[in-house]
Task: inverse folding
């Protein structure tokens, strides 16, 4: 493709640049501003230097939330990615089943997050919830408001229910882009089902899988609404993930300085981990060439 | 290696095919000899790929049976039929090396590794890929990828037949010649039964011993390249084969004379015509003599194609093409004569019997 160099083209990105500046850069700078100052209200600020950062990084509360969040992200990735691939592989490629499956798959993605939380909050209740009542009548004393393990299980199952569809749809898009000739050739070459997956389907899904993993990681690492609605971070602090902790600190306790410092650390962690994911996955791609 | 028999094969892609027009492939009843090189020739959508996929087992025909060496294989899968097939667009396993790609069909069949090595190296040599055996297949050019696909088709030593579905579409013109002659050579060495689908007459005529011309879901003629050229049994074969194609003009028949406009053309024998169908006369541009004697024509255009000139003219109001040697003069008031033996008479597009005194098959 021929490239034309014309500096006037920069003006074309100006509107987006302004938009991003107002919606992202300026708020971020405000947060930076808060993170190095202390205030006692009345719009008076005092220079605090790196105090807040030190405080956050040395607080067990922050590290606990971080670990919780990392484990949560790890678990849901370990479930949603293989499950998503498996469902995508088994979805029909022709006929009336295609739109039916696609709509069914898209449904959870269309539901507002707080509604998802509410659905599961009610669903899991021991007294009136279908799931909670059913489990208890089976003799399992399930109660997500008292047992941390149950709370975790509920939040994880909810996330899997809500977001596996995204992985499915992305994988499916990768799968349908494979021409029929590949499958026919594989049949003629006598390839097993596993070989077809390993040498045809997986390589073709690789790029969309990368996107799926990145999106799911970032989203789950920033998860707030659903666990907040279902468990409110409890019982105790057992489902208090980073963003829930952050909101408690900023809005609940009105500790603007530490909350701002935590926001920046949080942001940097996501940026770093996303970069690591991306590099690792594209690197392995490059090595194979 | 096998003799392939097609018994009253028909195929429709929809379940509820009733009328003949619903069939993508109309009835085919034919036998392919063991070790033959066949080309299925026809325009896009004429059913040739359908027929090929039925032979390979990727499609099960709606009606009829397929036999390999007399054994019914209609319900057998592709693997069980032991067929190799090469597709129109390159299929390579991106993550494997060129060597592993070629070894894949063999390794899937548990061929001993020493044998795999030997076969693959032969194929690498043949397809000029020897230098890149250890390269990943992903970054190769379309040419090279298609050579890998071809190689995977050829690598197995004991296949019943090798089928090619327009395999050279994506290959450079220069490479096409090379690969085609390599295929031809390989066929002579191995005596595999080979079926080659193409819409390119040059490819079909140079590759195959027998060319099967298909049109609108049916086989219109099976013959050697010479037969197709000299005695097309259908007007479609007439104008599809040859460049330019056969001149077809509607005529009236009166005994052993064809009348067109106010001109009469003597035929070598009276054609036997059944009924009152559409009667046409066909003659190849190569068998029309342009000179100062004969029937008048009006020249519209002369195309110089190097060693020959193609004269586009109108004859009694109908378009006509004439091939003239490069250094022949074209007179101002040009006239034409038809070579009597080269004239064919077609009734409703099919060649009418007996017009040259011989019985049509």
Result:
């Amino acid at each position: 493709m021929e490239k034309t160099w014309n500096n006037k083209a920069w003006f074309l990105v100006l509107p987006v640049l302004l938009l991003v500046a107002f919606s992202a850069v300026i708020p971020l700078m405000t947060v930076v501003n808060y993170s190095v100052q202390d205030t006692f209200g009345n719009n008076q600020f005092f220079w605090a230097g790196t105090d807040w950062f030190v405080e956050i990084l040395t607080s067990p509360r922050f590290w606990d939330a971080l670990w919780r969040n990392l484990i949560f992200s790890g678990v849901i990735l370990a479930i949603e990615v293989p499950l998503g691939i498996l469902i995508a592989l088994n979805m029909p490629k022709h006929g009336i089943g295609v739109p039916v499956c696609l709509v069914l798959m898209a449904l959870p993605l269309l539901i507002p997050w707080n509604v998802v939380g509410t659905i599961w909050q009610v669903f899991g209740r021991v007294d009136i919830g279908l799931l909670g009542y059913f489990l208890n009548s089976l003799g399992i004393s399930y109660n997500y408001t008292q047992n941390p393990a149950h709370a975790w299980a509920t939040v994880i199952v909810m996330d899997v229910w809500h977001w596996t569809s995204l992985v499915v749809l992305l994988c499916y898009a990768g799968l349908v882009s494979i021409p029929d000739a590949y499958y026919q050739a594989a049949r003629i070459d006598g390839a097993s089902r596993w070989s077809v997956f390993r040498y045809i389907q997986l390589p073709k899904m690789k790029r969309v899988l990368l996107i799926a993993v990145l999106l799911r990681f970032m989203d789950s690492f920033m998860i707030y609404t659903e666990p907040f609605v279902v468990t409110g971070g409890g019982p105790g602090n057992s489902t208090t993930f980073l963003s829930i902790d952050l909101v408690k600190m900023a809005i609940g306790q009105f500790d603007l300085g530490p909350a701002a410092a935590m926001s920046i650390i949080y942001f940097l962690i996501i940026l770093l981990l996303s970069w690591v994911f991306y590099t690792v996955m594209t690197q392995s791609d490059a090595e194979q060439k | 290696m096998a003799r392939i028999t097609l018994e009253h094969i028909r195929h429709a892609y929809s379940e509820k095919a009733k009328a003949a027009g619903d069939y993508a492939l109309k009835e085919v009843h034919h036998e392919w000899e063991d070790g033959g090189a066949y080309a299925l020739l026809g325009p896009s959508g004429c059913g040739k790929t359908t027929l090929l996929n039925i032979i390979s087992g990727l499609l099960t025909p709606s009606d009829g049976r397929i036999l390999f060496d007399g054994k019914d294989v209609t319900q057998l899968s592709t693997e069980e039929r032991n067929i190799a097939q090469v597709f129109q667009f390159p299929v390579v396993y991106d993550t494997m090396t060129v060597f592993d790609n070629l070894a894949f069909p063999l390794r899937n069949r548990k061929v001993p590794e020493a044998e795999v090595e030997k076969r693959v190296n032969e194929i690498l040599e043949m397809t000029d890929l020897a230098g890149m055996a250890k390269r990943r297949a992903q970054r190769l050019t379309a040419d090279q990828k298609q050579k890998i696909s071809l190689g995977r088709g050829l690598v197995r030593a004991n296949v019943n037949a090798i089928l090619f579905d327009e395999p050279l579409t994506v290959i450079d013109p220069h490479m096409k010649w090379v690969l085609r002659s390599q295929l031809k050579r390989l066929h002579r060495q191995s005596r595999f039964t080979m079926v080659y689908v193409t819409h390119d007459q040059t490819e079909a005529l140079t590759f195959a011993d027998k060319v099967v011309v298909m049109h609108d879901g049916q086989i219109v003629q099976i013959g050697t390249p010479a037969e197709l050229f000299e005695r097309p049994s259908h007007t479609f074969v007439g104008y599809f084969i040859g460049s330019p194609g056969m001149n077809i003009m509607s005529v009236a028949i009166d005994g052993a004379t064809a009348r067109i406009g106010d001109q009469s053309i003597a035929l070598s024998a009276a054609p036997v015509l059944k009924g009152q169908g559409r009667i046409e006369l066909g003659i190849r541009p190569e068998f029309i003599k342009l000179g100062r004697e004969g029937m008048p024509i009006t020249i519209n255009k002369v195309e110089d194609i190097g060693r020959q000139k193609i004269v586009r003219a109108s004859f009694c109001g109908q378009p006509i093409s004439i091939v003239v040697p490069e250094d022949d003069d074209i007179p101002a008031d040009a006239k034409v004569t038809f070579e009597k033996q080269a004239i064919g008479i077609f009734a409703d597009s099919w060649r009418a019997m007996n017009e040259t005194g011989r019985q049509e098959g």
